Amino acid sequence: MRRYAILAAALAAAFAGWTFYxxxxxxxxxxxxxxxxxEIPFDQQTLxxxxxxGYESLATPAxxxxxxxxxxxxxxxxxxxxxxxxxxxxxTQTWRAGMELPPAPLTSLAAAEELWIAxxxxxxxxxxxxxxxxxxxxxxxxxxxxLPLATGGVLLGTATQGVLxxxxxxxxxxxxxxxxxxxxxxxxxxEDLWAGTRDNGVIHLRAGHAEKFAETEGLPDKAIHSLxxxxxxxxxxxxxGVAQFRxxxxxxxxxxxxxAKSLAANKTELLVGTLADGWLRxxxxxxxxxxxREEPGQGGEVRRVFPSGEDIYILKPDSLDVLRxxxxxxxxxxxxxxxxxxxxxxxxxxxxxRLWVGYFDHGLDIVDTSRRRxxxxxxxxxxxxxRIQRSPDGQQIAVATANGLVFFDNSLQQRQVLTRADGLIxxxxxxxxxxxxxxxxxxxxxxxxIDGGTRSVYAFQGLVNNHVYTVAANGDTLLAGTLGGxxxxxxxxxxxxxxxxxxxxxxxxxxxLARTGTDWFAGTYGGGVQRLDQAGAWHSFxxxxxxxxxxxxxxxxxxxxxxxxxxxxxxxxxxxxxxxxRAIRTGLPSVNVTAILYHENKLYxxxxxxxxxxxxxxxxx
Length: 621
Prior knowledge:
The protein is built from 1 helix and 57 strands. It is mostly beta strands. It has a domain at 183-302: YVTN repeat-like/Quinoprotein amine dehydrogenase (Methylamine Dehydrogenase, Chain H, 7 Propeller). The radius of gyration is 27 Å and the shape is globular.
């Protein structure tokens, strides 16, 4: 028996030693924190990997989101970079999304013992002056705002999961009244907290008791954009004015009709940054005769306004101004940009080597990369660009938009504009492809063939669904990916259709197509990528991550691989040699890859947060 006892003790000691080794090894590295049913699992790691090489960013506008002063330096968060400036206003350091920082747009900053950075998709970051730590809650990766607490912990406002409390070791929901809410702003202290939401008004949590205020309780609007607290007073910035509270009771409305993006308060005045009307200084004395003062030269959007000593800082999308001793000057100016915007939706290269860049919420840029010069185009038709395609002879560029189809020649002149009034089955063109002697346009109402005249095919003629998202041709064979499955046409006649009901297709919503050899690769909404062989059979991939959303028309095949741009999984690459999919995230300014172009052995990768160019050889395939 003694021998068994000694053996058991030895095994216990060995197990304890192994456990200690694993725990020690995990310290400072990625870890999964799950302690109880009330806790939320999260990954935590110190960022230490070197920046990827080979990636070139095409500079986009600064798109400043937030700014704070921390440890004597000024930190400014743009959508795709964090900038540090010294007291003299000199840029001393830059951290780029996808390079030194995770691949996600930055959303807000908060200063305490550490500098906190919220991201849209990669959780929260903390910077201690030497290292950056990443805290990524499971199922709550989009952080909208961060509030440091006097206890040393922080509150994380999330886009969908309410308010979370992080104390350095554990992550928990902060309070049931704030669970599962889209949080936009936080202010106050742990025992007396104000939480703004996207469409549920503001919640005041005091001593564990929650009280909600929305339009029925007197708020100007239920959409909350900003908060400020000073003692027992609180101000709630909405889409149509600012509500002032005292002792938890609504007192009055200020700045009526203005969308208050930012608020800051002191004993005597309230600073309000607005969406389009600059910034205001509102006296807080009881006398109603004292009106708000709009500062001269401060029109336009103000995303953050905050005092520092006697100075007032005003953050705009492209600059940070400071009001000092009554004099307004620029403290920081956004660096020169090559592109007009960052939310890329379509890419193409014309026969002259000019890069065409379309945007989701704007028009397009024609970029002469050798001269670092752009020609921006935007009008009532060239807006919300879905696809840009060069004709096979290189003499035309066709631009598909939400408002029509526009054709350009090589001299960049518009030659033709087509809408529903001109024969398209719908003005909203989601995709197009060369076909026969002309083009075929995909729309939410069916297909339109264009070759001097126009003819349309829709569900009445056998199309599996009218809403066509993607179209691709190979000779006289045409594939139309729709909301309801895939239709295969010969010429203009539907020959067959496949859906989840008659095949092993995982989901009917087809968003993108690419051809390699005799096979087609189809991107889907929620089912990743599947392969369609020449016999008409669908094949799935064991290496494909689950629930992948492939963005519309964000697929391309090269001699080496097939690439798919996804909503949340970055760039997926099918390595034909290894017969496996690989997710590429590093080097990207966002994991939402929205457009892909392959040209001269380089990949042009458009995201919702900028555009990067990388040699295919640098991807390691």
